[in-house]
Amino acid sequence: MGVIALAQLPVLLDVMAFNIALPSVQAELDLSGDGLNPAVSAYVLAFGGLLLLGGHIADLVGAKRALVIGLAGFALASVLGGSAGDPGLLIAARALQGAFAALLTPSALSLVSTGFPDPRERARAFGIYAAVAAGGGALGLLTGGWLAEALSWRLALYACVPLAALALTGAATLLPGRPGRAGARFDWLGGLLGSAGTAALLYGLDEAGRLHWTAPLPLGLIAVGVLLLGAFLWWQAVASGPLLAPHLTRDRDRAGCVLAMALAGAGMLALLPTLTIWLQYVHGHGPGMTGVMILPVAASAVIAATQVAARLQHRTAPRVLIVSGLVTAAVGLMLLAGIDSGSGYGPHVVPGMLLAGFGTGLAFVPVFATATAGAAPRHSGAASGILLAAQQVGEAIGVVLLTGLITARLNDASEDDHSEALLHGYTDTLWWAAGALLLAALVAGLMVTARPPGAPGASGVNAPRRTAG
User: Fold this and answer.
1) Measured between alpha carbons, how far is 296 from 51 in angstroms, rounded to an integer?
2) Residue-level pLDDT at 462
3) What is the pLDDT of residue 469?
4) CATH number of the domain at 2-173+243-447, out of 1.10.520.10, 1.20.1250.20, 1.10.1040.10, 3.40.50.720?
């Protein structure tokens, strides 16, 4: 399990490390604000757009092989990005990083979901996986902030290489191999429609955040994305060898987890940017110290996932943990929504961070476990891809909401109170984000009715569950 957790770290660290190093990238490569957007968008579009396809490939060739290929490609792309001397090469490297991350991420989740049949071991494994998923962003913020401030933004990319190499070595030598689906046909049309549709939707949401909802480009892209995804679902219903097996799309518990994850992705996206703005722009802390001061989010998420959720999951109904965690995280965001320039770090910010991190760690363990349970091993990669793609779409929606509220605040502000207006834009977003988490809790409470994994008669890892219709 340690190898699989380590395999996730390069991806999680890279995203936050690169984003916090963007000012250094802009200065060294002489980029305008608009010139930075493609470097960020290239990764998001490649990663989010190819997750379904990456999960399908993992099912066909075997999750271990897909993980090794993904790690090797991600490491090479990181070297390419770190050595980039012009914007074009950096954009290409970021797109490659996203593509290989889309292969290794569902492969890692697939290995967790199929490698631990015992309920207690499975709960412990998902606890570690969720801890890395929930806390990796804050660790990336710390790493990226320190490297960008003390040394160079390039090291924020190079730092992923030894981690990926170590994980690759461990995966190749320690993980048991699982054969792929010998003789299975590659659903090239499903992969094309699903990837193009998701990428178009993500691109449209990205442009909506940068421009406006009513601008022709984002509206057109979103419409194309919806049409392509509609065609994808139609093809999955009629194809003889679909990318998504029928039991994956008809499972009510899985659908509830996917919807809850999309809403949680939209909600939790605002947390780290808000804290970064408050610490850096309002209180003047450098990137390195900002990363240190945000660590309570990661620490509480790790404790909740590994010491609470992992211990309770095998005997507690998933929706109890999911709803409790999401409501706790929402309360944390509400506390943080009340901060201003005069708020103190200890009495006003730390409690909200602890609750938000703890709630996320508590909820993510049963979400990951329930969304992948009941999927046959040969379809576990696709099940993982569905959940992770939903999270990416949710985060993209969160970006649009974040950008719109911040823009509205800045348009109403004078030049003298720019920092205060920026902070208020972020805290406005936290109220909406808390609402998204509460809605996610409601969805999970209504749709996720699975029994505790350790309960008598509960479905096992490979046992199909009842469907929604």
Assistant:
1) 30
2) 47
3) 44
4) 1.20.1250.20
